[in-house]
Amino acid sequence: MGEDVVHTFRAQSVYCLQTIQWACGMPIGWGKCYRSESSPQVLAILNCIWDGHADLRPAFIGYDDACDLLCHVVTQDPNDSWIQSTKFIVDAWHYIGHRATNVLCRTWCNPAPTNGSQPDLVLVQEDAEGNRHQTRAFNTETAKQLNAWLNGYEAPLRQMSDVNFDFFVHVLFLIFKEQIEKRIDKGDRDLPDDFFAE
């Protein structure tokens, strides 16, 4: 009688989905973390997404535990190509809770350094009264916005086999991508046609 039981992978064994987006919110890829969200699993997901395309890696990756991820990368392989290609920064909301005594985090993973070391992360803007002040160049919380949207699908995802789970998440990413494209088009924030011309 027990031979009739078909064992299937269930999504409830997945601890979390790790989602990757561009700064504008456009989803790039995702991966599953099992039992916990650990630095080795996150690095494996990043390596899988950019496998064979190291030249296309982003200049910055914002992640709530970027300092531990950076530490993991360096301790596993001090010559890892991620160290040369990408700066790991802690997203702004989580950075507030990181210890001020963590020199690695404060020096290498600061999302808005005020010393001018990362001009791509901090912009100087002028307000209506003519006062100049520094502001973050982009929203480091785009992944949180996608994750909040995905939470609405958590119950059905928990009941799916691994194949259905993966397919459904891909479909959700496609739907979210289309919403982001509409928002970009509506806000007239798309890149000009000659942006990539040399």
Task: Provide structural commentary.
This protein starts with 13 loop residues before the first strand and ends in a 12-residue tail after the last helix. It is globular, with a radius of gyration of 20 Å. The relative contact order is 0.14. It has one domain. Helices cover 38% and strands 16% of the residues. The strands form three sheets. The protein has a two-stranded antiparallel ribbon. A two-stranded parallel sheet has the order 3-4. Strands 5-6 form a two-stranded antiparallel sheet. A hairpin with a 5-residue loop joins strand 1 (14-21) and strand 2. With 198 residues, it is of the alpha+beta class. It has eight helices and six strands; from the N terminus they run E-E-H-E-H-H-E-H-H-E-E-H-H-H. The chain has helices at residues 39-49, 66-76, 81-85, 92-95, 103-108, 142-150, 154-158, 162-186; strands at residues 14-21, 27-34, 60-62, 87-89, 122-126, 132-136.
Throw out a few tags for this protein.
single chain, 198 residues, alpha+beta, two-stranded antiparallel sheet, two-stranded parallel sheet, 8 helices, 6 strands, 16% strand
Q: Counting H and I runs of at least 4 residues, what is the number of helices?
A: 8
Number of strands: 6
Number of domains: 1
Helicity range: 25-40%
Average predicted local confidence, pLDDT: 83
What structural class do the secondary elements suggest?
A: alpha+beta
Residue runs with pLDDT of under 50 for 5 or more positions: none
Tell the overall outline: globular
Instruction: Give, in order, the helices and strands.
Output: EEHEHHEHHEEHHH
Cα gyration radius (Å)? 20 Å
Major β-sheet profile: 2 strands, antiparallel
